[in-house]
Recover the amino acids of this structure.
């Protein structure tokens, strides 16, 4: 307890020293305009490590001048689990479950990237066509699920609660489909080196077709609910503008690059699996940022690219459902895989950008080097340039539109 | 362009730092060569990396706008060199290029590529803390993923796992 005299003394010390107005000018309208020399200093704010908008454990050190952000410095590593070191310590197939855990929202695509990289070192391994088709169906369904989380939580970040529940309802269906095919809901390890682990259960493909039909109807609803919403447009248009040059310089890929109007999609331009054939058959297009609501490359553009990609994914899934035929699902892979000596880099289009694996084998059961090129890690670097000059309230909108998964930035 | 055309274009242009081409080859039983599978690389002198990357970025026919990845690899404890591996991507020409340069473990230092591609900044920071490579002229050489006081370079093959960290047992 402190005595009243002491309290008043400390209050005096902390009293802000506002000086009288240096100059008063009387305007023509009769209003008085004050000019004041107020000393302000930059304030450093730690956003995170447990801020809900960072979608994981990440800290951004913001320097602010009032409401204005003057600097931003992301600090990573809270979720670092030595994935690359583990890749050099376990057998080729044993590493597969670790790939699930970089970007836990798109584990199918992570499995696929790693499997394709190992297969690039094993030219004699043949992948059966049914395996390829199931891989494509799973990868695209997973892309929809991942974009649904991106869309739902982005709404949540900037104050729209409702879309989140709709997004998770649809995602739940996809997770149920994955549970039927491999038993897991989040970390699948389903796409294996040489093909896929298990054939589809009876009726599964029909249910995927049902999902496509239902989702297509719901999609327009969600688009109108959030993307075209006036408040949402006000919060995201003209915010966090990334120009095409900036996107190139920072090595951005995926929706971050396409949001800036750059027409590039690995599935179409450097096709893997049978995406090239699917595109030739007109199964999918590549949505781009247009600058329709504000400036080209703003947060709104990136979000609408993700949103429109979901519909394109449905086209690929339907094409695969037409093409799929009975047959084997996995090539002739031994129980303990020995990869011939060599090195390869394979990058594929993940929901967040290019996920690449550089693998180096010396001919043994274990990789010599397993490098992971994680899209979230690279895309996050742009924050340092994007944040300065924006308002503090927009910081959350900018991080949300970057759509990072911290498991992947830190690996 | 495919890899051979890119390599041909680079050697015709006489780009500084281009040393050789590392191509996959089939195994040969007579010479007991195990072969090398996978994708080809061009080998580049690490001292000339900035000039080489600048040429790749600015040349009209190559047009590599994006640096996709920069990392290193330690082939084995006995190997004298560390490999620096760079992947470039051209969006407008839709082709890729893998670059490999050998850096002797006795002098792990090369110029930073940050001036050419900003994307290199975070990759180089990770490479510095994991392999102990020094990138001269790097604007922000702090640790990226590891704590600031982490001992050693974990991705090197001769790395010894610490027994404890700040009183926390690691065994």
């Amino acid at each position: 307890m402190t005595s009243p005299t002491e309290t008043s003394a400390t209050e005096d010390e902390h009293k802000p020293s506002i000086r009288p107005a240096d100059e008063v000018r009387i305007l023509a309208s009769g209003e008085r305009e004050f000019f004041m020399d107020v000393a302000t200093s930059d304030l450093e704010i730690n956003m995170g490590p447990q801020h809900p908008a960072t979608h994981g454990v990440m800290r951004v050190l913001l320097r602010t001048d009032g409401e204005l952000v003057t600097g931003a410095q992301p600090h990573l590593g809270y979720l670092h689990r030595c994935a690359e070191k583990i890749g050099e310590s376990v057998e080729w197939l044993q590493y597969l479950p670790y790939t699930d855990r970089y970007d836990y929202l798109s584990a199918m695509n992570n499995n696929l990237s790693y499997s394709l990289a190992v297969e690039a070192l094993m030219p004699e391994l043949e992948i059966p066509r049914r395996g390829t088709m199931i891989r494509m169906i799973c990868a695209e369904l997973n892309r929809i699920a991942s974009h649904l989380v991106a869309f739902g939580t982005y709404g949540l970040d900037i104050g729209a609660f409702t879309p989140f529940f709709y997004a998770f309802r649809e995602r739940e269906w996809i997770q149920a489909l994955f549970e039927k095919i491999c038993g897991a809901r989040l970390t699948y390890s389903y796409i294996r080196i040489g093909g896929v682990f298990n054939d589809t259960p009876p009726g599964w493909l029909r249910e995927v077709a049902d999902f496509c039909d239902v989702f297509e109807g719901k999609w327009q609803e969600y688009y109108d609910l959030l993307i075209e919403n006036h408040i949402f447009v006000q919060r995201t248009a003209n915010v966090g503008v990334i120009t095409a040059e900036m996107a190139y310089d920072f090595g951005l890929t995926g929706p971050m690059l396409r949001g800036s109007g750059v027409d590039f999609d690995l599935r179409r331009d450097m096709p893997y699996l049978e995406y090239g054939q699917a595109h030739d058959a007109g199964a999918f297009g590549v949505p781009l940022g247009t600058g329709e609501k504000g400036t080209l490359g703003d947060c709104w553009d990136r979000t609408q690219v993700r949103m429109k990609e979901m519909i394109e994914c449905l086209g690929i899934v339907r094409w695969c459902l037409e093409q799929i035929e009975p047959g084997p699902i996995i090539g002739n892979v031994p129980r303990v895989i020995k990869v011939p000596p060599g090195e390869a880099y394979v990058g594929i289009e993940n929901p967040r950008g290019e996920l690449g694996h550089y693998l180096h084998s010396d001919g043994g059961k274990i990789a010599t080097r397993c490098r992971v090129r994680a899209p979230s890690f690279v895309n996050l670097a742009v924050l340092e340039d994007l944040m300065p000059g924006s308002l503090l309230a927009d910081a959350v909108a900018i991080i949300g539109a970057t759509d990072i998964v911290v498991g992947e930035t830190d690996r | 362009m495919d890899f051979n055309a890119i390599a041909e274009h680079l050697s015709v242009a006489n780009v500084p730092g281009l040393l050789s081409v590392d191509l996959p080859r089939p195994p040969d039983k007579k010479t007991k060569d195990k072969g090398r599978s996978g994708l080809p690389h061009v080998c580049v002198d690490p001292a000339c990396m900035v000039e080489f990357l600048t040429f790749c970025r600015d040349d009209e026919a190559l047009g590599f706008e994006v640096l996709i990845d920069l990392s290193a690899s330690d082939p084995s404890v006995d190997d004298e060199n560390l490999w620096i591996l760079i992947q470039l991507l051209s969006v407008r020409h839709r082709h890729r290029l893998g670059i490999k340069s050998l850096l002797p473990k006795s002098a792990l230092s090369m110029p930073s590529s940050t001036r050419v591609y900003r994307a290199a900044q975070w990759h180089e920071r990770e490479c510095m803390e994991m392999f102990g490579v020094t990138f001269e002229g790097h604007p922000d050489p702090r640790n990226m993923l590891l704590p600031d006081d982490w001992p050693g370079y974990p991705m090197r093959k001769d790395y010894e796992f610490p027994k404890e960290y700040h009183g926390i047992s690691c065994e």
Notes: The interface with chain B takes residues 76-77, 80, 82, 84-85, 120-123, 248-251, 253, 257, 262, 264, 269-270, 340-345, 347, 354, 356, 358-360, 362-363, 368-369, 371, 373, 377-378, 381, 385, 410-411 of chain A (CB under 8 Å). The longest helix of chain A spans residues 129-157. Residues 1-10 of chain A have pLDDT under 50 and may be disordered.
